[in-house]
């Protein structure tokens, strides 16, 4: 079963690498429910997670997830100690904390641009994650870490990209970087896309004038007439005499 689980995980990771540009080190957002399940099942997250995902990982959480464990009391003190060992990523709720499920969903935005894995046992959070394309989901079952298969939203997104209906995240990023290099803003692109309306111009006044007919009003030169009785002189061409005939005359 271990080899089968590893093979399935490798196939799922390849799907996210190829279609959503996931790269190592994999960033894994962990909430309190996952750390509590790992504590109960005696799972060493730092040791087992890189082996299971077959690559380098960065384990991280948010301040909202830590705050939530503090408010839940001493029963989750061990889960809080585990979660404190990971990197704390900045969220938008520093001054006013929100539930961990809401915070983690806000970190993913609409398309998971930072390529986070999410490790959770929260069913509410899991349902929200499956509405966002390109979010690998990790959970614990039967004392093992499991990487869930791609959700239907991710599969539909990939199919739409292949059909040319959508632009993949990698293509979006390359377009953004090209625009930044060339200094093209979105407003400039919109202006260039719009067609200019031609102003209505008045007709050329010279084109309104009537055209003059050729020869009208212009005197024609008189034809040269020959005087009466005057005959045309015809020019005759004399033929050259042959030298042989001249020689015959002289001999006679």
From TrEMBL:
Residues 177-191 have a biased composition (Basic and acidic residues). Residues 173-252 are annotated as: Disordered. GO terms for biological process: rRNA processing. SUPFAM superfamilies: PIN domain-like. Keywords: Nucleus, Ribosome biogenesis, rRNA processing. One of its GO terms (cellular component) is small-subunit processome. Involved in rRNA-processing and ribosome biogenesis. PANTHER family: RRNA-PROCESSING PROTEIN UTP23 HOMOLOG. This is rRNA-processing protein UTP23 homolog. The lineage of its organism: Eukaryota, Metazoa, Chordata, Craniata, Vertebrata.
């Amino acid at each position: 079963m271990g080899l089968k689980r590893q093979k399935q995980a490798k196939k799922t990771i390849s799907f996210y690498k190829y279609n959503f540009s996931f790269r190592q080190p994999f960033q894994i957002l962990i909430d309190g429910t996952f750390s509590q399940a790992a504590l109960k099942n005696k799972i060493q997250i730092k040791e087992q997670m890189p082996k299971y995902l077959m690559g380098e990982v960065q384990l991280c959480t948010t301040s909202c997830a830590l705050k939530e464990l503090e408010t839940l009391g001493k029963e989750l003190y061990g889960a809080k100690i585990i979660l404190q060992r990971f990197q704390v990523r900045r969220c938008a709720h520093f001054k006013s904390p929100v539930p961990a499920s809401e915070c983690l969903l806000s970190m993913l935005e609409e398309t998971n641009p930072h390529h986070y894995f999410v490790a959770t046992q929260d069913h509410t959070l899991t349902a929200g994650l499956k509405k966002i394309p390109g979010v690998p989901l990790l959970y614990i079952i039967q004392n093992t870490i499991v990487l869930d298969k791609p959700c239907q939203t991710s599969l539909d997104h990939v199919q739409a990209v292949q059909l040319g209906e959508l632009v993949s995240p990698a293509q979006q990023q390359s377009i953004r970087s090209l625009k930044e290099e060339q200094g093209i803003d979105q407003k400039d692109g919109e202006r260039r896309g719009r067609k200019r309306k031609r102003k209505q111009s008045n007709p050329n006044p010279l084109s309104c004038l009537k055209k003059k007919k050729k020869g009208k009003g212009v005197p024609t030169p008189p034809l040269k007439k020959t005087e009466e009785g005057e005959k045309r002189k015809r020019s005759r061409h004399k033929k050259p005499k042959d030298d042989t005939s001249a020689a015959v005359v002289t001999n006679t």
